[in-house]
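Incident log entry.

Two folding requests arrived from the same account within the same minute. Monitoring flagged them as a possible duplicate submission, but the sequences differ. Recording both here for audit purposes.

Request one:
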Amino acid sequence: MPKDTLNKAQPAKTIAFMQLLQLHPMAWLIGILLIVYSGTFVWHVHKPLPCGLDTGYPQRAANDVDFLVDSTWLDADGQQHQRSEIFDTLLALIDNAEQLIVLEMFLINDFAGRTDDGYRALSGQVFERLLARRQARPDMQIVLITDPFNRLYGGVESDRLDALKDAGINVIETDLTVLRDSNPLWSAAWRMCCQWFGNSPGGWLPNPVGDNPVSLRTWLTLPNFKANHRKALVVDQAGQLRAWVSSGNAHDASSRHSNVALTFSGAAAADLLASMRATAMLSGQVPNYWPNQWTPPREPTTSRTTIQVLTEAAIRDAALKRIERAASGDRLDVAMFYLTHRELIEALIQAHQRGVGLRILLDPNEDAFGRKKNGIPNRQVASELHAAGVPLRWCNTSGEQCHFKHMLHRGSDDQPVWLMLGSANFTRRNLDNYNLETQVILQTDPEHPAAQRALAFFDQQWKNTGERLHSLPYEAYADESALHYWRYRLMEASGLSTF
């Protein structure tokens, strides 16, 4: 470039820079906020996970395995009936614990449900048993790890949680801020402004789940849509650990929901305890759960009955691997409260196309604690699966929810039954390292009592055997609206949803 042209260009650049500096201060402020917002958005979606999360523990030999069901159904006359095993077992495990109780539970409260409406006082029963065990054995180590939603993120008091603390029980309310943001469009703004104001009980806005008014800060926290969603228990009995993993919450208004659970003893219970320790540590505590006494063996197992503990995205990876492994002539049964994860949906369709015998049982997303829902997302996913020819039925709910998170694979007669269950719905939020989740995999011979019960459970739900109307055909809740379908896809991809 000629020298005189360079000399003319330089003043022009200087003038442009000076004009930029003279922009209105508000423009500078907006620009800085956008930069900070963008950086906060990206960091809290992709930041490293706290230590101990997203873990697939080894397969462990398991003893005393039992498959449990809480099921609600209608008879031919339209009368509702309920079978309850899961929380009766949990209460018995607490009652018989000797030195250790560690309970990790998402919902443990009486929000949105009263016993005079036919609900069971599940949360109160669990609190009473924990307090009774503390009184009977003052030196016992008792830990409750739960989600801050049980205090509405500081927006309401919880006399029950305070009573546990006063009795010397270690109550850990999970620090959710260290987790990744599943709804970053909102959470990035919330982290920049609202989180710094904390929260306190009382306010002037309606309570989303109760009667006492709450603050604006409570409502601003709710759309972060993140949780410690786990439902698990570890106790010690007769010198060994015994574990309980379920899809069910100790929540009064959830007491009519249909759920499944597994109980087991052995080294996998120590792995479950290790996953709970990781949750306590991310919340700023370093508990000592007798690591030397309960450390599982390092050697691989040759047992025909095994349990494997999985958390967070390790659940997704194991589910995908199992679906992709299913061959023509195999059977794959899925019972799910929310089924929205795109990779899993596509894998299920591909499995159907290669001859796997699929049966998909979904909640119709009709009810949520006395409020009617619009069927999103399951009805939209169902329309996609139905169009691909996948056999699908709806749970026949009547105010309650079909709250299963259950997948079972059955191959040839000489192959073990593979069963996965626990807290995780098959959604982006539950499986892509946003929520805290716990799932377990049971592999065992088809003749094992737990396998027999799991196989019979799904058949009864699907076929309505014994004059129990558990399920309905696809047409009962079909919704093939393209608008609703793409609304679900947007909600799933962006995180602007509760699923």
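Request two (distinct sequence, not a duplicate):
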Amino acid sequence: MGTRILVTGATGFIGGRVAAAAAAHPDLDHVRLLVRRADAADTAPPAHGGGASAGRGAGPVVETVRGDLRDPDALRRACAGVDAVVHCASAIGGAEDLLRAVNEHGTRDLVDAARRAGATRIVSLSTASVHGRGPFRAADPDGLPLAPGSATSRTRAAGERYVLDAGGTVLRPHLVYGTGDRMVVPGLLTLLAALPGPLAGHGSLHSTVEVESLAGALLGAALSPATRPGAYCVAHPDPVSDAELLAAVEPLLPASVRDARGPAVELAEARALLAGNPVAAHHLELFGVDHWFADERPWTDFGRGPGPGFTAAFPRHLPWYRELLASHG
């Protein structure tokens, strides 16, 4: 009998890719997708043969169930009979009470339900932001303390603790890009549009991972016998320079913004200019200093390669980013 797996956050940017990969995996017997809203089931991979009671088709049976991380009973039902859990659901931004209820207490209750159900592998998606702001240059994740600087990161770090204490595995990406990204590239564009000129490059290096590669790593971590308990930083082995990021993203700025730009703005000047713009200032600190985490273990332990690097992979996502920007005027 093949492995039975639960994926939470199965309609999200990353969780949706994990769900699709799991639904096509030949070694899985049953894939259960946890979604929060009734209408979210429409965007999940279809169940073989027509739903939760479907028989075995060409791939695993795919079952979509409703549930909320704030509902322990729903989590117990979702975990019943599964061998592995890939936890991709989280709350990002908003009231701290909600963040704590979802990211911390929800993860605690999911881990408890998974252990009671007899699941032997728990893999949780987190973020490198639990380490706080850089500079991090070729940083060894084993030597990095937790220093989250936001309510989102604090509650995700707190949720990690339950996974790690249960012998589970946590994956911490930094910049995740690709079709469906509404944070990384849009955030960088928000920063660039707030400056009177292009941001001057100064040699900072960043860990990036394409969303498809991250999804492969999450599913691989759940299935590979070489996966180790503990935390991994997941990124392409080759860091991306600030110059490469800017060259890729600047053409997405509206022509009116590009045409009106003055001389390049140095980092110190940008900090002063953005003192009254907390959103752009946040992205400046994210992109303006080194965030390079050196951890090649995911690509050896999980049986999945990292895929092409940023400069090769990013262009195929340009049509989606252009469509997103056009829809926002």
